[in-house]
Structures are given as structure tokens and as C-alpha cells.
Amino acid sequence: MRADTAHLARPPAESLPAPSTQPGPVSFEHLPDGLGIGVAAPRLTWELPAGTGPQDAYELELDRGGDLHRTARIDSGETVLVSWPGDHLASRERVAVRVRVWTGDADRPSPWSEPATVEAGLLDPADWRAVPVGAAWPEDHDGERRPARVRKDFRVERAVGRARLYVTAHGLYEAEINGRRVGDDALAPGWTVYPKRLRYRTYDVTDHLAEGSNTIGAWLADGWYRGRYGFDGGTRNIYGTDQSLIAQLEITHDDGTTTVIATDASWSAAPGPILTSGLYEGEAFDARLDDPTWSTPSAADTGSWEPVRVGLRDPRTLVAPEGPPVRRTQAIAPVTITRTEEGRYLLDFGQNLVGRLRITADGPAGTTITLRHAEVLQDGEPATRPLREAVSIDTLVLSGDGPYTWEPRFTLHGFRYAEVAGWPGQLSAEAVTARVYHTDMRRTGWFECSDPLVNRLHENVVWSMRGNFVDIPTDCPQRDERLGWTGDIQVFAPTASFLYDCAGMLDSWLTDVRLEQLPDGTVPWYVPVIPGEPMWTPIQPGAAWGDVATLTPWVLYQRFGDLQLLGRHYPMGKAWVDLQERLAGPSRLWDTGFQLGDWLDPAAPPEDPAAGLTDRYLVATAYFAHSARHLARAAAELGNATDAERYTELADDVVCAFRRAYVLPSGSMTSDTPTAYALGLVFDLLAPAQRSAAGDRLARLVIDAGARIATGFVGTPLICDALTDTGHLDVAYRLLRQTECPSWLYPVTQGATTIWERWDSLRADGSLNPGGMTSFNHYALGAVADWLHRVVGGIVPVAPGSRALVFRPRPGGDITWARTRHQTPYGTAALFWEQADDDTMTVQVTVPAGCTGTVELPGRSPHALGPGEHTLSTAVAGPKAA
Questions:
Q1: Which end of the chain has less Cβ packing within 10 Å, N or C?
Q2: CB of 541 within 8 A of CB of 593?
Q3: For residues 845 and 869, is the Cβ–Cβ distance under 8 A?
Q4: Residue 642: count of CB within 10 angstroms of its CB
Q5: Helix H or strand E segment including 516
Q6: Shortest CA distance to 243 belongs to which of 229, 228, 225?
């Protein structure tokens, strides 16, 4: 090594300002802010500034409205999910929290952090007075129904100190007070297992109110609750037939008194200007019916409002959010606008996205503008066959009262292209914008390298995650499906948890997985569960999909350091592994029943994506061993030594059975496929003496296939690691950089801006894959990004919460540099490496405060690094190219 730890060049110390030691503001649980938290003793996290030495101790201050409580100095290096130090929060209680720390050799504490405020939601079911209210008029429960709006007038007689709106719905809602929108979230309250958990949100509406007359109201829509959803035409009224608002406005006056305005029989309902609205269908809106004053005391038309119907809701099922809501995060202008001979306009936004259009139009009353959405074109027209029965059409009828700006409220579409019909006059780029929506998670991971095709692949992964993390992790955002498939997120979770802080969102979804788990331990194919006859209902246990119960909580624990999360979901994982054990019986081979195997193996026919080349029972038994081993690890972390021993022995038994049934003495597999070898190697199912031969055989299979992909959902996330770990890094790079179909980069060369469901969703001749499952936005096969982050990028978390990191870049494939950055719970970890023409490799490493780092450069011994920035270099032997 030419320089062990040559630090980055810096100016003389006297010219540098003293680094700040003030920690960042405290955050609460996995939430973006503390308003309306549903935990009485929220855990606290803070970040030390870059350049700070290790934390030796901390002190917390709680300010309960002027009543200060300080913990005094606590000797600890913990900064992530630290236990709440005082009395538990009561409902509605508001506490300001600060922290100061002692670091390094400092004999004095840092400055106090800026205060962060946490405020409890309604923690006791008895706090709720609100009941569901909605339209009382007759409806056709089997057809499309016109959404209602509900409202109430009230007076505020005294000055307002603060006001909170606690609100949810059977269906979807957007609330307004005195003509102003409340909040900026979309598709609220999201999708949970509604009979058992209905999420409510807390809004600060202090500035919405005035002394005297006030009005509160809400738009309603069917959403997932009672809208048409699912396969083969969908199912209506999955959770109920009502469309209702549940809202409680609590006003605290300056004199300490409280006024509560809750949904009850005193509210009124009326049809709104939304004629129809569905998540699949799109939305139809008639501006002629829109009274913009409807939610104000001066509403022009209150005569059409009639008393609401009052429903029932068990307040014990109302829960506060555990993660951020769905929001608009970006706006994109069209790249091109083309007028067709028929007078329609075809818009290309240059990016396959999930969201909806916002338009501003002016025309005569009754002018009808139709917006049709598609991911791809075929023969120059929007290709709607992949949408199946999701119509994805929005319609606006103009009022004739001048320019009108409109965007649908209660639907989302997956699209790159939009066709606009009926536009009055000439359509300009300024009149239409595509607005991107997804769960508003904090971005935490970035990667780029010298290969622009690989960079576009990584961007496609990011865009597919954004489009499919819409309150739950879905498989696709455009067709008549959009379900929380357990297998997809199981393989993608390592990538997802690097790119975004998705801990709160996935923790919430895993809670629903646990609620939907069958009494025998079966984990559904997708959650929340909806009808899926005949293939998915009744629910059957399936490997790789059900293993989300053990593997995904473990990934989240490793990435975010949340032991409580691991413990909450441990019973679900245990029930799943116990079921696998019963199904396998004494043989320890899970070799019976329905399995999806290596789903979407490119060798499988379009009409039967489960008919892959790898023995599906080999896949099932491999996952049985893998889950049992991870359950044992979880038990050990949770201090359950008995379970740790039991499931370690079970995993060992399954591994032995796997070797007897599926591995030949030579190390070859009974299924001579890349997926079989990838499973055996990455899941550590082979004897040590067999690994080299198995790795060689895997490399030979890849090379004989021309370095084209021959794996499906199960094998694809594993194959590059299997090659890397057995000395075939060059073959892994060949596989990565292949551009012929099937490969990761083939879609990129075809102009893809998201990950496709099938390797050949769009064929080289421009035709669509004929299979009914042809999505152009499907993140599962993008799980290779985890390998990019760890192997090409070189950042490898090796302790929960990334408290310990290994920086291990593995150059190859003519890639000459890579830059990777990850915002860990403790701060920013970064690595940049570059390989010069003389084979000198220069590496710049950033280790977060509070973490330890080890750098492992090719051909060199590991080298320990402390927090801070470091520059190292070494000579890399051998060719760069694969």
C-alpha cells in the first residue's frame, strides 16, 4: 500500500474554524416529525456533526410547557433509538426535547441541540368522540358511485391558542377548513388491514381558524376501502359499502378551555363535482358543478346539503402513522408534445413515473378534456394492453368561467406518455405538468460510476422504488393489481433500505403482514389480502414470498438498528418457520405443495411464469434453511438463547437434507441452473469443499449463455454475489454489463427509465411481450442495486444500524471509478474510488461519527479507520476488464 492513511490535505489548523460539536435536532422513532405520534415513550435519535469524536456521554432535556426535566450525564455512546427518559406522554401532550453530548477527550459538553417537539396523538380510545359520517342517499353498491363531500359550520367564540385535526376515513379524504386545504398528503389515510388498523393523521390547523364563523369539510372517495380493486375485473366493497369521514377538530383557547368539533349527525353531505373516482379507473370531474366556496361560511349553495348517515367504528382500531405519508415530491414538464392527425396531443415526459397530470385549460362550458395514460407506445399510440382492466383515464369538463387549473385527487397512474383529447386550442408545455407521488421517504443512498448505462440502470431502480412505495410496497403501479406482494419486497428490501429511510413504512406494512398471517403460520402472497381466485385464493404457503416474515425484519434491523422492530415481528417469523418445519416433516425437505419457484425465469413461457428451469422444491428447501438460520440469529439478538439453539439446529438439519437431495458430491446441483447454484452459495448450503466447484460451474453456465441472464425473481438478486464470493468477479461484471436480452442493461438500451417486470417486456422488434404480466415498472429485478452498492460502490454495513462498516470496492469490467454515499443512522458514509491507467487505485472514505470503519483494498490487508475523511491509494494487480 503506497499510503496507509494519508488524510485529505487540509489548510493549517489555525486557519480552520473550530468544528461544531452541537448535535443535530432529535428525531422520534422513524417519523419525519413528532406531531401526532402514537407512542407514549418515543425513542430518540440524534446525529453528531462530521468531525466529532466518538460520543462518550449525553444529557437529555425535556421541556413540558416550562416544566424542565434533565437526565444529568449518561455515560453511553448510543445516539440511535435511545429510550425515552421521562414520564410517558399523555394524549395531546407536547414536549420539547434537546440533547447535548460529551465527545472525545472534551471535559465540557457540546452546546444543546436545537429543540425538537414531539406531540402525542390520541393515545386512548376514549379520546375519540368522532363517528363515521357520509352520504345518506341510496347508492348502487355494485356500480360506480359519485363521491360525496361532507361539511359542518361552527363558531369559535374565544381566541385560538392551538388547534389540531385528527382525521381518517372509510375510503379516502382531503380535508378543508375555511376554504383552505389541510395538509399536503395524498391518498390518505393509505391502505392498511382496515378492520384491524385504520390510520389517522394529526394536522396543526391553528392558522386555519378565525374567531366567529368557520366551516370544516372534506372531499371523500372510495379508494381501497370500497372501490373496485384486484384481478379479473376487481372486487368492490372489500371492506365495507360506506364512504365516511371520521374527524375530530380540537381547539384549545388562550384561556385553556377546549372546543371539540367531531363528525356526528349534525354534519351535512352533498354530491361534489367529482363524478366518478377509482384507483384503476381514474377520475371524472365536472367544473360546472364546483363551488369553490363550499367549505367556507359564505358557501353559495348550502340548500343541496342534507343530513349525513352516521356509522360505527371501534376507536381501538384507530392508529397513528409509523412513517411518512404519500406526497407530491416532484413536477415534470413534457419533453415533447405531438399533435396527431385526429387533433389529439401525445405527451412524452421522458420518464416513466407514478402520479397524475395537472392542467390549466380555458374553453367553452361543457368542453370535455380526456387524459389517457400509458407507460410505452406501440405503433406511435399509447399501449394500454399492459394495463389490463385499469382504464387510467381522467376527464375534466370545463365550466366556461375562464382558465381552470385541475388535478385529480384520488387516483394515481403509472405512465410516461399521456394522450390529451378535446383540448380547446393549442396545447402548450406550460399548461400541463406531470406530478410525481409516492411515500415521502427521506433519500439515504446514492451511487454512480464511470459507465453511463449502469448509472441509468441505478436511476431506473430508484424510480421503480419511488413508483411502487405508495403507502405499501407494491409490485406495479399501473395495471389492475398494485398489491403488496411479499416476495417482491423480500428480495428488494436490502436495496430499498439503502436508497431510502423506509423503516417506518415497512414496519407498518409488516404489522399488517402479521395481522393477515393465517393461524397455521401461512404468510399471504400479498398484503393486505384481497380476493384473488383461483390462483391466490385460498392462500397457500409459498417459499420466497412467505419468507418475508423472517428475512425482511432482519434486513431492517441490520440497516436501521431497531431491535424493537425485530422483536415485534419475531413471532410472525417463528410461526412461519414452524409451518415450514411441519410441511417438510422428518425429511426436512419442503418438497410438496404449490410453489412459484424461480418466478419469471426467462426460460419460462409467457403464459406460465412459474415454469422455470430450477426445481421449485429445491428453492423451497433452500429458503426453509435460510429462514431458520435467520430466525436463530434474530432469537440470539433478542436474548432468546433457547430459540437460538433450537432454530440453529433446525437450520443445520435442513442444510444436511438439502445437500443429500440436491447437491452431488462434486458440488454440482441436481438442477444445473444458475439459480440453484446462486441459492446454494449465497445461502451457504454447500459443504466448504463443494463451494469452489459450484462457483466454477455457475461461472461456466453464465459464460456458456453469453453472459445473459438466466434467473428469475429468486436467483437474480443472488447471482452476482455468488460469482463474486467464489472468485468470479470478472464474470459478475460481464453479467452486469451485458446489453443483449435478457440482461439488466437491455431495457436501458431500449430507452427504459424504470425496471421492467420481464426481461423482455418490450422486445427488440418494438412489440410488447404477449404475456398478461408485462409491467414496465416493477422493482424486483432491480435488487442487483444492492450488489452495486456493496461491491462496485464498496460500502458494506456489518453491524446493526451500520455502526460498523467495511469499505471494500471491487473494481472490474472496465469501470474506472465509482462514487457511493449512504446516510446511515449515525451520519454519512461515503466512498469514492478511481483507478488510473497505471493501475493505481485511489480511494476516499468517509466514516460517520460514532461508527468504526475498515478499508479492504484489493490485494491488501484490512486497515482500521476512525470517524472522518481518509484518502488511501494502492496498486491493483491484474487487468481491470472482465
A1: N
A2: yes
A3: yes
A4: 8
A5: helix 503-516
A6: 225
User: What's this model's pTM, rounded to 2 decimal places?
Assistant: 0.96
- Cα–Cα distance measured from residue 847 to residue 863, given in angstroms and rounded to the nearest whole number: 13
- Tell me which residues are annotated as active site: 481, 757
pLDDT of residue 4: 37
- The strand order across the sheet containing 817-824 reads 3-6, 868-875, 840-847, 827-835, 817-824, 445-449
Are the C-beta atoms of 494 and 503 separated by less than 8 Å? no
**What is the rounded distance in angstroms from the CA atom of residue 111 to the CA atom of residue 49?**
12
Dihedral over Cα of 224, 230, 232, 237: its sign: negative
* Strand 148-156 relative to strand 381-382, pairing: unpaired
Contact 507, 565 (CB under 8 A): yes
More confident residue, 296 or 859: 296
- Residue 400 CA to residue 751 CA, distance in Å, equals 40
Q: Rounded distance, CA 708 to CA 713, Å?
A: 15
Nearest to 598 by CA among 701, 700, 696, 718: 718
Residue 208 phi, psi dihedral angles, 5° rounding: -85, -15
Measured between alpha carbons, how far is 658 from 680 in angstroms, rounded to an integer? Answer: 9
Question: Can you state the percent helix, strand and coil of the chain, rounding each to 5?
Answer: 25, 30, 45
Q: Which three cell numbers stand for residue 663?
A: 447437491
Average pLDDT of 410-418? 98
**Where does residue 634 fall: left (phi above 0), alpha (psi -120 to 50 degrees), or beta otherwise?**
alpha
- Amino acid letter, 340: T
Which position has the grid cell 364546483? 290
Secondary structure (H, E, C), 780-821 = HHHHHHHHHHHHHCCEEECCHHHCEEEECCCCCCCCCEEEEE
φ/ψ of 368, rounded to 5, equals: -110, 120
Q: Quick one: which of 513, 464, 458 has its CA closest to 485?
A: 513
- CB neighbours of 321 closer than 8 A, spacing ≥ 6? 31, 36, 38, 199, 201, 504, 508
Bridging pattern class, strands 868-875 and 94-103: unpaired
Cα first-last separation, the chain: 24
Q: How confident is the model at residue 5 (pLDDT cuts 50, 70, 90)?
A: very low
pLDDT at 771: 83
> What secondary structure, in 3-state letters, does 423-489 show?
CCCCCCHHHEEEEEEEECCCECEEEEECCHHHHHHHHHHHHHHHHHEECEECCCCCCCCCCCEHHHH
Distance CA 251, CA 160 (A): 7
The mean pLDDT value for 276-302 works out to: 93
d(C-alpha 479, C-alpha 352), whole Å: 14
Residues linked to residue 181 through DSSP beta bridges, in sequence order: 176
- C-alpha to C-alpha distance for 794 and 305, rounded to whole angstroms: 62
Angle, vertex CA 870, rays to CA 869 and CA 873, nearest 5: 155
Strands of 178-243 (E only): list them: 180-181, 185-186, 198-199, 201-204, 212-221
Say which DSSP state 126 is in. Answer: G
pLDDT over 90 (residue 3): no
CA-CA-CA-CA torsion sign (618, 624, 627, 632) = negative
DSSP annotation of 571: H
Distance CA 169, CA 172 (A): 6
CB 881 within 8 A of CB 736: no
Digit-coded pLDDT (tens) for 763-814:
988 899 988 889 999 999 999 999 999 999 999 999 999 999 999 999 999 9
Q: What is the pLDDT of residue 18?
A: 53
pLDDT digits (tens, 9 = 90+) for 845-875: 999 998 999 999 988 899 999 999 999 999 8
